[in-house]
Write a structure and sequence with these properties.
The chain is α+β, with helices and mostly antiparallel strands and 310 residues long. It has three domains: 160 residues, no CATH class; 59 residues; 76 residues, no CATH class. 41% of the residues lie in helices and 17% in strands. It has eleven helices and 15 strands. The chain has a three-stranded antiparallel beta sheet, with no helix packed on it. It has a two-stranded antiparallel ribbon with strand order 1-2. Strands 3-4 form a two-stranded antiparallel sheet. The protein is globular, with a radius of gyration of 24 Å. The protein starts with a strand and ends with a helix. Bound molecules: zinc ion (ZN) (2 copies). One zinc ion binds next to helix 1.
Amino acid sequence: MTVTTCQVCGCPAQLFLCPSCTGDLRDTLTALASGGQRPITIVTESGKILYREETMPGMLEYLAQAANGQARLGNTSARKTGGDESPLRYNPRAAALHQECFEALRMWARHIARINQHVLTWRTSIGYATYLANNTDLLAKDEDAGEAHKRFNTLARRIEHTINRPIPPKLIGPCPTFDENGNRCSIRQPNNRKTRVALYARRDATHVVCPQCKKRHDVRDVEQKAIIDREKLRFDASEILNLMASINEPLSERTWRDWRAKGRIKIRGYRRPDGSKGLTRHNDDDEPLYRLADVRRLRAKQPKRKARTE
Ligand SMILES: [Zn+2]
Ligand SMILES: [Zn+2]
C-alpha cells in the first residue's frame, strides 16, 4: 500500500482518509444511526437499585420525529387529538432534509456494498447509516472518501440546526491520564469493578475536562490516544520517540535508551528485515517492538523532573 495524503486534513495516510478522519466519519455515521448507550439507574418498587444501559435515539430518529411534528421524547402531553390546536404539525423542511439524508446514505451504502459484494438487508436511512458506520474502513478506500466525509458532516450539522435540540455529546475516548502509580484514570462501578473514565464532548468542542482527575485534555489528543491504544499497535524504538513527541509526552533519547538497556520496558515482539512481525527474535537484524501504552505508563511513573527534562 502506498503512502499518500488524507483528502480531508492533508496529513500522511495509507487510504484516502487518515485514521483520525476515518474515525471522525465513523463517529458521524454512528451519531446519525444511534445515540449510543447511556448508563441509567432504575429504582424498582421494592427499592432495589438496578444499573442498565439504555439505547438513545440517533440524529435520524430525531429528524424523523421533527418531520412528523411529534413532540415526543420527554413531552408526550403535547399530543392531543380532536382539539383546536394541532400539535402534530408536519415540518416540510425536516422532511426534505430527511429525504436528502436517506438518498445520500443509500447511494453510499449501495456503492460500498456493490464493490465488496455485501447484501444490504436493512433498507432504511438508519439501516444504511449503520452499515456505513460498520464499514467506514472500506469507505476510506474509496477515491471519493473525502466527498463522503464532507457530505455526511454537513448533513449532520444541518440536522442539528433543524431539530433545534442539543445532540447528546459524543464519546471521544477513555481519559488518557495515568496516575503516579501508573494506573489509568478510572472509577469504581457499583459492582466494584474499575472501569476507565469515558470522556464525552460536544461535537464542536476542542477541549474536555475529565470529571474524575479534573485534567483538561485536547479532544484530538484523546481521540488519537484512543486509536493507538485500541489497536494495540507495536512500534520500533525510533517510532516510539516520534509518537511520544507527537502526543505531547516527549521522552529524551537518553531516558528511552536507558529504559531499554535496563529492561524496564517490555518488548512486545520483533519486526523482521522483510517487514513481517513476530513474537520471538529469529536473528540479530530483528528490530524489537514496543507498545505506546507501556511507554506512557512508565513515563507517568517517573518523578516529574526526570521525565520532563531534556
Ligand atoms: Zn485526515
Ligand atoms: Zn481522568
